[in-house]
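Trying the structure run again after the queue cleared.
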Amino acid sequence: MNRHLRDTLVGTLSSHLDLSKSRLETLALLILGLVNSRTVNLSHGASQFSGTALIPSSYRRLQRFFQYVRLDGDWVAQLTVKWLRIRPPWILCLDRTNWKIGRSDVNILMLAISTRRMRIPLMWTLLPTGGCSNQGERISLMRRYLAIFGPDSISWLLADREFIGATWVKFLLENNIVFCIRVKENSVICLEDGHTYQLNSLLRTRRNAKQILAQPGRLAAMIDCPGLPLTFDAKRLRDGELLIVATNGPTKKALNTYKKRWQIECLFGDSKTRGLNMEDTRLTDHAKLNTLLIVITLAMTWAYATATISQAGAAIKKRAHGYRSQSWFRLGFDRLRNWILHHPQKAAAAWTRAWPKRRIKPKTARVV
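Done. Tokens:
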């Protein structure tokens, strides 16, 4: 593996992380091995190391890194947006991905940024069990976000049907966060004029259902929480399923904006089978998994930076079927792997082009 490229990574990382030179070199080799081998499996990553060390020795070196090194996830969130020069306000997507390693559950509650070309992991929480997150876990994650970036950095917060609840919605409203959350078809809404409707029945039987939904109201499950005015919008999908969203933002923009929630599903695909094969890990300890997610985020951000440089701002061409031939991530990821092997100076330039020069410190903000 090219020594100059490794030293470039070490040089930039050293200005942000209080790690020894040996640990910084291991982190740089870990990022490079992750990109080249397309998997988070440490045995495959160890085979990417150059030098005279045996592969079992390199594998043990990686194991010791995860055993003793703890990286700060909030630091990487700030670094990512500065590196990619993404200016707020942002569209944020909240979702969860989970899988099993033996009998252990890996359950990640993820907050990501969605842009026209990119879907970037920003902050996350590793949940203690499988299944849905609770309202307290969501609020805790958002408090971390608000403490660094503040509520003015959010254009929209998008979430699926799982992410509903009176305490959670009240928290979002109190912090002036504009959101668009999908609700279940059988939900009951109570309008401010006193009328009550079941959503699927309303949309099936009333011609003026859209006008009714646009009136201020609340979900029946939140009837005991005054001061939670929401509006609703709906459409029927091609498969016949109803898509119904609740929002405190402009109702006419809600459904069109909600389409961008799918970006976080694409992000999970990029971090799994279409990219870095995150599910190949055998790590189950939350502290180690958190470090691994930071390494994955750095690798994905590097791929996006590569795509930006190589395309020079030009869009990816569409094919005859109307879709682009590649995603922005996949284009950058494939090109980065080629550059690491054959043009290490280009890979180093993509890494350093917009890398923050000074150590990033968390900002403070008032959180209700």
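The chain has 14 helices and ten strands. Worth checking whether this holds up in the mutant runs.
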